[in-house]
Amino acid sequence: MTVSVHAPNGRAGAAVAVAALLVCTSLAPADAAGSAQAASPARTISSASWAAVASASTSAPFGTGPLVLSFANTGTNGHPVFPAKFFTVANTGTLDITAASYTATATPGTFAFRIEACASGWNEAADTCAAGRSTVLNTPASSLLSSAVPMAAGSSIRLRASATAFPRNPTTPTLTVGVDVSRSQARGATVTGS
Amino acid sequence: MSVTATRSVRRPNPRLLAAFAVGAAGLAITGGGVFAALNATASNTTAQNATSGILSLTMANNGTGFSQAVSNLAPGDVVNRYVTLTQGADLDGKDLTLAVTDATPTLLTTSAAKGLHVTVSQCPGAWTPATGACSGTATPLLTNAPLSTLSTTPGAIKSAIAASGTLNLQISLTLPDQAETTVNGAAPAGTIQGLSSSLTWTFGETQRTATTTGS
User: Fold this and answer.
1) What is the model's pLDDT at position B21?
2) Is A54 in the B-facing interface, judged by CB distances under 8 Å?
3) What confidence score (pLDDT) does residue B36 get?
4) CA distance B140 to B100
5) How large is the average pLDDT for residues A60-77?
6) B136 — contact with chain A (CB < 8 Å)?
7) A39 in reach of chain B (CB within 8 A)
8) Number of domains, chain A
9) What count of other Cβ atoms lies within 10 Å of the Cβ of residue A171?
10) Total domains, chain B
11) How does pLDDT run across B33-80, given as a tens digit for each residue?
């Protein structure tokens, strides 16, 4: 094994010396004019979010994007029956909300739809509501601002969707449901101090 | 007839050279002795003390101050924090500034339009953190400055602070009001929602202007 030692070039050494001198002379004034600092520890600051989503899931994660409900025909072609479907609307933000804008579109467009809420909670097996049944959105409207929302951050509600056709149509309908939340539908601004 | 030219080169006599060197050395030695004899000193009998001043600035929380995280800030929200700056007893300070650095930059600290803004106010008396009340008339020292600016260029807070002086400060942090609509659970592109930054607040100053004094 050989170790080679390079003697520094004379000119290079001189250049380094000059550079070091320049650094020293340029730093000297800053050091001469003393400075002091007082710094805080690093602390996290985070912004809120406001969001709701319609989902087929009954628990998190609820995902994102519109919900597409497909209604199966449990009747016959002559007498089509499309049982109602229940879905979840979840408050997936970090702020409480007071309202949301619901949108819904049925396909084929000849189908009528209705989205309903139940204040007392749905009996989904029996397809009944004990008290407080209300319509959130139904044809011919395709969007509506509603207060039937999961108000608390992290909470969710169940809604009922139904589709019917006049005249009778055995085609399996789909209903696309969307939920938009604007800043004004979340809690207002606050001033806090501590 | 022929002419022959010859060049003669004389070499110095070695003995003469040696004698000259010895003479020069003797002159140098004796000359040095003469100069040493002419040195004189005068000094103070009591040692004079010379001390350098200490420039220091300390920050203390008034209430939670900067010790606590701020979470779930919605557009339009204002969060007030209170700190007390104390100048050291030795030297006056000048050109007090506030800088904010973010270890994990987001739009909160990089966007002047959407990001956080800060206002610094001074109370001649005491701030009451719980109520935001100032026992006197509060004076704004820095108004609605974007943190995106303070992260690159410290903001000027005060031109001078006297030694042992204190500054009772309110730091108002706000997220500008802005309209965003979340569609089907997905925030829009470039959203201000759900962001997190790690802030360090640094007050800086320089020493008072150097002086020339005599007495």
Assistant:
1) 64
2) yes
3) 57
4) 18
5) 95
6) no
7) yes
8) 1
9) 14
10) 1
11) 455 578 899 999 999 999 999 999 999 999 999 999 999 999 999 999
